[in-house]
Amino acid sequence: MSWEIITLIIFGLVFLVLLSGIPVAVGLGGVAIVVSYIFLGTLGGLGYAAWNICSMFVLVAIPLFIFMGELLLHSGMSDRLYRGATALLGKLTGGLLHSNIVSCAIFAAISGSSVATAATIGTVAIPEMERRGYSMKIVLGSLAAGGTLGILIPPSICMIIYGSMCGQSIGKLFIAGIIPGVMLSLLFMGYIVVRVTISPKLVPVYEKMPLKRRVSDIIGIWPVFLIMFAVLGGIYLGVTTPTEAAAIGSIMALIFSLAYRKLNWSMLKQCLRSAVKTSTMIMFLFVGAQVLVAVLCILRIPDHAVTWVVGLPFPPLAILVLIYFLYLFLGCFMDGTSLMVVTLPIVFPIIVALGFDPIWFAVALVILIEMALLTPPVGINVYVIHGLRPDYPLTDVFIGIIPFFFMMAVGLAIVTAFPILATWLPATMMH
Predict the structure, then answer these.
(1) How many C-beta atoms surround the C-beta of residue 328 within 10 A?
(2) Is the dihedral of CA 33, 61, 64, 21 positive or negative?
(3) Among the listed residues 176, 163, 157, 174, the one whose alpha carbon sits nearest the alpha carbon of residue 53
(4) Distance (Å, whole) CA 337 – CA 343
(5) How many other C-beta atoms lie within 10 A of the C-beta of residue 213?
(6) What is the residue extent of each domain of the chain?
(7) Residue 388: left if φ>0, alpha if ψ -120 to 50, beta else—which one?
(8) pLDDT of 249-302, one tens digit each?
(9) Residue 240 pLDDT > 80, yes or no?
(10) Cα→Cα distances 21→24, 32, 78, 380, Å
């Protein structure tokens, strides 16, 4: 049987499993076992593949970063962050809409999760903006879009997954996301300025804030910046590995939670439980994906796919654009983590064979996944924001995110045209 037919059978089974509602990790592992038995006549090697991914030390960073984000949420530092951003940016055209974007960007730098970022900042922002009379469509859209920055601005759980699967430096992947993440934030803010300038009624008249309160709110965000610089600075300077940086950030978050008198046994259990549940789900997904990858490699499907794609009579850029559209299409039906673990075993070797930088592609891929977080029917960030205020129609959130979705497309085009935006900073890192 030809490799093309085998590939179609495997991925047909994968998508049938995904559509059936079976947990993705179980489905991927089940497909791997069935395919290995049918086409290889043995299950030998699958256990080693599962053990290999579980024994990777760098994956310890995942529960640590999740734990750190949970501590920051429950300690009240997210409230302080939003108030500080409001004090800094409230006078700009668009008012607190800019606070949504900047707060999401900063929280993303200590969270690593888009869903956590959207939910955390949305919980603080929506009541405040509702009270002041903002147009809720643009409010909800800015929060859903701003939340997607959680998986681009480091630390990013998606970058850890990419680095683990593709053998890339996770430290460099983290640093690669900084400039594109800032660029996307500025694109969002630029759209807000233009939109509010055209339609001033979208936002209320600026409420003046006493100077003493403004200074107090700005000073109140220093713990968040201290944690952010400790985590990212240590990685950039080569002082700490991503796992060590995650541990340092978690310890600092614990200390600040204790200093703010928010740390108690109930809160600690809740944070630990959330970290364990999320990281366990990711690890099960990793195991299922790695077992399937092992079967694909034994069947040499990635090698055949690379040879076939490189031989196509199209320039590399055209093939890259087709890969972009493939991810946008699949992103309508799959969450970002599942999308990465299912597609990377085939797509990554093709990207490398076409001559594209693997660090740069990680950034482009994460932007594509961010866009998928906003597209129905599996637009997770949209449902998270709607879940915070279900009394607003879901269509309001989808209408609100449309302009931000196109801003992300512009950002993807810029990163594609100028790869140096993603590769320059990692190249300057201390080793």
Answers:
(1) 16
(2) negative
(3) 163
(4) 10
(5) 11
(6) 3-427
(7) alpha
(8) 899 989 988 888 888 888 899 888 988 887 887 788 778 877 887 888 788 888
(9) yes
(10) 8, 17, 34, 16
The stretch 95-114 carries a mean pLDDT of 81
* Measured CA distances, 273 to 121, 145, 248, 413 (Å): 21, 27, 20, 40
232 burial type by CB count under 10 A (0-12 exposed, 13-18 middle, 19+ buried) = buried
Write down the mean pLDDT value for the chain: 84
Q: How far apart are CA 406 and CA 425, in angstroms?
A: 26
Query: If we measure between CA atoms, which residue out of 302, 297, 379, 299 comes closest to residue 336?
Result: 379
Q: How far is CA 361 from CA 18, 163, 168, 358, 364, in A?
A: 25, 11, 11, 5, 5
How much is the pTM?
Answer: 0.84
Res. 408: pLDDT tops 70? yes
CA distance 97 to 134: 9
Angstrom distance (rounded) from CA 224 to CA 77: 7
Beta carbons of 144 and 397 less than 8 angstroms apart? yes
